[in-house]
């Protein structure tokens, strides 16, 4: 670059005149230009979810990665691959912890086998809370810190963001009508996590199967029923082809939520601003996921009823009451075996006792208002 003592050409071109003026007024910025360009090169991370490619929850995982890109101005690029791309879906947590993957997306309850206390994060007794209310405990009631304790006890090298409330999951699909507790006795049923023990308390014979194996097992008669996620993903899996009785409402997974996990060393190497992006993107995705769930799941629920001749009906109250009593026994069993499990239970109960008393006192009955405006819901 020319020094200021060199003689300029008699008639410089306009573009060169502007360039020289910028250099004279901001030589430091100009000299730093190559460094700025390098800083703007995106950091790319390889994530894998626990979800098949066509599932709505894989779409939610990709939505989160898009928000990371938007909030970081393109500085952080998350490649969110579906289950099986690198490892089977339920091996994601180990792969992320060991650095095989930079990160992953799934549900905390999937890691129940690592420590039973994971099952209390959305896939266990709700203590009267829905998913948003349990997430509030995560943020403000000590749940986040307890989750880190559980991960440390399981020797998982992760940093996690818990977000994305899941609507109350259906009790499941059955080949025959379920009218009471007696109809559940001896049924071969697929579920997961702590719900295995809860349903066993109701006299069912429960097993855990990978998503791809569930519908074929019902079709062959290996299973009498199963639960998985929601009207949207259940439709994609083909449940309506093998079972026509779809029970809504259940206490087995009434407050589930999602998790994004990042390898701890990879996370700690990120600039502070990008760590903030990961946190805020999770909060933004949490709201968007709830809104999209309302939109998509209600559409698919209507489709099941109208065009696929599925009988949707609410789980009978005696079964729901029996579920709550069953949870009492499950909680007592695992609390006695695992002090960390007991610690989480007491923290959740303390939060629920205060927050849900307030909520139940101030929240007006929405079903009454629905009936006023639209009349009694149509029969299944």
Task: Lay out the secondary structure.
Elements lengths: L13 H12 L1 H5 L1 H7 L3 E7 L6 H16 L4 E6 L10 H6 L5 E4 L24 H10 L2 H11 L4 E8 L6 E3 L13 E3 L4 H7 L3 E3 L3 H9 L5 E2 L4 H7 L7 E4 L8 E7 H5 L3 H36 L3 E4 L2 H21 L1 H24 L3 H9 L6
Helix pairs in contact: 4-12, 6-7, 7-14, 8-13, 13-14
Task: List the main descriptive attributes of the protein structure presented here.
13% strand; globular
Characterise this structure.
The protein is α/β, with parallel strands linked by helices and 380 residues long. 49% of the residues lie in helices and 13% in strands. The chain contains 15 helices and eleven strands. The chain has a six-stranded mixed beta sheet, with helices on both faces. Strands 2-1-3-10-4 form a five-stranded mixed beta sheet, with helices on both faces. Helix 8 links the parallel strand 6 and strand 7. Helix 4 packs antiparallel against helix 12, helix 7 packs antiparallel against helix 14 and helix 13 packs antiparallel against helix 14. The longest helix has 36 residues. The protein is globular. The N terminus is likely disordered.
Question: How many strands, which pairing sense, and closed or not: the largest β-sheet?
Answer: 6 strands, mixed
Q: Quote the beta fraction.
A: 5-15%
Total number of strands: 11
Structural class assignment: alpha/beta
Helical content class: 40-55%
Task: Please report the distance between the alpha carbons of the first and last residues.
Answer: 79 Å
Order of helices and strands: HHHEHEHEHHEEEHEHEHEEHHEHHH
Stretches with pLDDT under 50, minimum 5 residues: 1-38
Taking Cα atoms only, what radius of gyration do you get, to the nearest Å? 26 Å
General form: globular
Strand order of the largest sheet: 7-6-8-5-9-11
Estimate the mean pLDDT confidence.
89
Instruction: Output the number of helix runs.
Output: 15
């Amino acid at each position: 670059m020319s020094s200021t003592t060199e003689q300029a050409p008699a008639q410089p071109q306009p573009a060169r005149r502007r360039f020289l003026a910028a250099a004279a007024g901001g030589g430091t910025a100009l000299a730093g230009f190559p460094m700025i360009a390098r800083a703007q090169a995106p950091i790319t991370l390889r994530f894998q979810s626990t979800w098949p490619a066509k599932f709505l929850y894989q779409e939610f995982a990709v939505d989160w990665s898009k928000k990371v890109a938007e909030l970081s101005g393109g500085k952080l690029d998350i490649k969110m691959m579906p289950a099986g791309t690198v490892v089977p879906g339920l091996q994601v947590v180990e792969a992320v912890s060991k650095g095989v993957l930079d990160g992953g997306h799934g549900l905390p309850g999937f890691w129940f086998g690592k420590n039973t206390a994971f099952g209390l994060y959305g896939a266990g007794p709700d203590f009267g809370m829905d998913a948003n209310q349990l997430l509030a405990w995560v943020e403000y009631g000590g749940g986040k810190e307890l989750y880190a304790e559980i991960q440390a006890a399981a020797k998982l090298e992760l940093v996690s963001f818990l977000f994305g409330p899941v609507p109350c999951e259906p009790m499941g699909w059955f080949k025959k009508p379920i009218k009471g507790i007696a109809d559940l006795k001896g049924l071969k049923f697929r579920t997961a996590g702590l719900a295995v023990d809860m349903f066993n308390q109701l006299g069912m014979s429960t097993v855990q199967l990978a998503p791809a194996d569930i519908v074929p097992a019902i079709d062959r008669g290996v299973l009498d029923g199963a639960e998985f996620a929601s009207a949207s993903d259940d439709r994609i899996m083909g449940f309506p082809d093998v079972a026509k009785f779809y029970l809504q409402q259940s206490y087995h997974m009434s407050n589930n939520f999602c998790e994004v996990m990042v390898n701890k060393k990879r996370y700690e190497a990120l600039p502070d601003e990008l760590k903030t992006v990961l946190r805020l993107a999770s909060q933004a995705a949490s709201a968007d996921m709830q809104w999209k769930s309302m939109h998509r799941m209600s559409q698919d629920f209507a489709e099941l009823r109208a065009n696929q001749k599925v009988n949707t009906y609410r789980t009978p109250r005696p079964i729901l009451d029996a579920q709550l009593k069953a949870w009492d026994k499950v909680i007592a069993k695992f609390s006695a075996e695992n002090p960390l499990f007991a610690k989480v239970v007491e923290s959740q109960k303390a939060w629920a006792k205060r927050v849900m008393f307030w909520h139940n006192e101030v929240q007006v009955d929405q079903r009454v208002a629905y009936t006023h405006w639209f009349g009694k819901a149509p029969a299944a």
